[in-house]
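Hi team,

As requested, here is the filled-out complex form for the flavin-adenine dinucleotide run. I kept the field names the same as last time so the parser does not choke. Let me know if anything looks off before we queue the next batch.

— J.
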Amino acid sequence: MNRSEKFDIAVIGAGIAGLVCAQELQQAGYSVVVVEKSRGVGGRMATRRVSGSRADHGVRYLEPTDEFLQQLINNLKIPKNSPDAEVMLRLWTDKIYQLTQPQGPIVPMAKNCYIAPQGMSSVGKFMAQDLDIWFSRRVQTMEPIAEKNWNLSLEVTSDGATEKPTEVVAKAVVLAIPAPQALMILEKPVAEIQPEFLHHLGCVEYDPCITVIAGYSPELQENLPEWQAIVFPNNDDLDWVGLDSSKRLHPAQPIFVIQSSAKFATTYLNSSDLQSLGKKLLEHTAQQLLPWFNNPEWLQVHRWRYAFCRQPLDVSCLTTKLPLPLVGAGDWCGGNNIESAFASGLAAANYLSQIKIGNVMFDS
Ligand SMILES: Cc1cc2nc3c(=O)[nH]c(=O)nc-3n(C[C@H](O)[C@H](O)[C@H](O)COP(=O)(O)OP(=O)(O)OC[C@H]3O[C@@H](n4cnc5c(N)ncnc54)[C@H](O)[C@@H]3O)c2cc1C
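And here is what came back:
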């Protein structure tokens, strides 16, 4: 087996930014590899299989502008009005409720929320079609080598990925991962990279989030609240409670997804007992909403260290040509949501297409 494989462009991260970027570059004729540390695509656009169903424990919904929806659907290669588009993305609700004080009135806010009945990760799976993605490979370091190439060293993160080489050589690299994780990869070549590029990366800050997925007795199915989702502005512990099972076509039991506030997650970020954290969040939910939230049939907990970008940059992607072409992209460029991640992935692809990687030499 070869120790390394060569490409025009390596994209690190198979979240929405990395996937859209890789698709654009591949369609423009470049040889592209996507390296992903986990076993699936979508990144924070994540869905977990739970108790015979699915639950979105990352992105809750898409709230697209018309242009964004059109662009996303174009990218999914589905004509806007075809029945397939219905299956991939459908309107879940046109209002989200807001609770500003415990046991207070819940106030509706108009919002068109689109979801994927198969789970939000299915959007990522669709966008990943025809891409060469190396799963279970974490990029540990990267450094410039001879002939104007980057060399990426990969660590195997789980079984089943052993057939791929442990190094990737590429003319250009897209860091489609949260900025703090990008900085870790750049520790080795730090002296060779433009200080301004590193400075901007270092300015980006993220808030964490703890997510609970909880399943309740099917008997409650007849007795569910009228709302699909509630946000809790300014609450110390809770940020969001969503009736996730209402996104599915034939739910067998009520499943709720509860997301903590940034404050709660920061306080308990390094706790080793996730189940207790989950129970704590359910207690808070029961206090705010209905007592039976305290009595799930089962619960699962996920910790997001880099959940929401608190301090994004005011650029659509971060670029440098020194020592070699390197682009940062993701939700931390130009916003803090799926829409900015998508736009940033497109901007990164556009930038690399313009400076012409591969057979065409460019001035550095
Ligand atoms: C709980 C939660 C709820 C959210 N809800 C919403 C919502 O409702 N609406 C909305 O618009 N946004 C929401 N967001 C934010 C949204 O998920 C992100 O803005 C968006 O998904 C970011 O996409 P991305 O491609 O930039 O990064 P990511 O999705 O984080 O993708 C980065 C990928 O890189 C991989 N990776 C990281 N480091 C390495 C490495 N060293 N080597 C290889 N691979 C690596 C990761 O595994 C990941 O797959 C939510 C986020 C969370 C956590």
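Two things worth flagging: The pocket of flavin-adenine dinucleotide is lined by residues 12-18, 35-38, 43-45, 58-61, 138-139, 176-178, 181, 185, 209, 211, 259, 304, 307-308, 330-331, 337-339, 341 (CB under 6 Å). Residues 360-364 have pLDDT under 50 and may be disordered.

Thanks,
J.
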